[in-house]
Amino acid sequence: MDNLSDQSSSFVYVDGKRYSLNIEFLKRKTATGFIEDDKIYIKLPINLDKEDKIKYINILKKRLIKRIINGQIYKELKFKDGDKIHIAGKDLTIHSYINQFAKRPLIKLEDGVLGVVIPASEATKADQILNDKVIKSLIKLVLPYAILKVNSINKRSFGFKISNIKIYRPKKVVLGSCNYKNKTLAFNLRIFLCPENIIDSVIVHELCHLKVPNHSPKFWKLLYSVMPDYDEARKWINKNLYTATIPNRWYE
């Protein structure tokens, strides 16, 4: 830990399993950490002094190791044939079909079925193709729903200016983000597989960042004034955080 470069890696062992520990110092304001499979990531502000770097590395490492011990490890979201999901107010069933005449993968939503046609020549990659096509299709489906929902909550509770709203792929572990300067909100596709109050809690959280770009007492006072039962949503996320539909850390 004495030589702290802009990027370093080592290993830690938890219950006999080896995890790579990846530490990065970036142009950011906050310290954060998360787990993906057998990798532990810690990201810190580059302008911290050496003492604070060591302090936050130890705090985050201890916290993340505790999550591993408790079985709280991020699982990548993967869709498969036969999955039934509820998203953007719709009940959908996912199906895949191998077609010897198809020249390229296709996807079509019809009568509640999200069907993926996979060319026979690419059958060995069927699972990967299915997941990729479904995620891309769901992002397109969710975006107008998300825009309406965000604008409705914003109009009712805040009245902030919003320049853009985006939905990103669920490979990222953050649930949502707010660019305070350009007034852009972005949300993980995963949250739209959650109950409505959970979706609302993430949206409210990010909307609050349009006024307060940090997690100071001023931020929490604003958030609780709009959503007094926010802690109930937080408890739900903490309880269900590590399933296939929820990532493993709080949103920024």
Helix fraction bin: 25-40%
The named CATH superfamily of the largest domain: Metalloproteases ("zincins"), catalytic domain
At the first level of CATH, the class of the largest domain is Alpha Beta
Overall, the morphology is globular
Termini separation: 27 Å
Q: How many extended strands?
A: 11
Q: What would CATH call the architecture of the largest domain?
A: 2-Layer Sandwich
Taking all residues together, what is the mean pLDDT?
88
Might you state the CATH topology name of the largest domain? Zincin-like
Radius of gyration: 20 Å
* Overall number of structural domains: 2
Q: What about the largest sheet? A: 4 strands, mixed
**Strands across the major sheet, in which order?**
1-2-4-3
Structural class: alpha/beta
Which spans of ≥5 residues are poorly predicted at pLDDT below 50?
A: 244-252
Order of helices and strands: EEEEHEEEEHEEEHHH
Number of helices: 5
Q: Which percent range describes the beta-strand content?
A: 25-35%
Please provide a brief summary of the model.
This protein is of the alpha/beta class and 252 residues long.
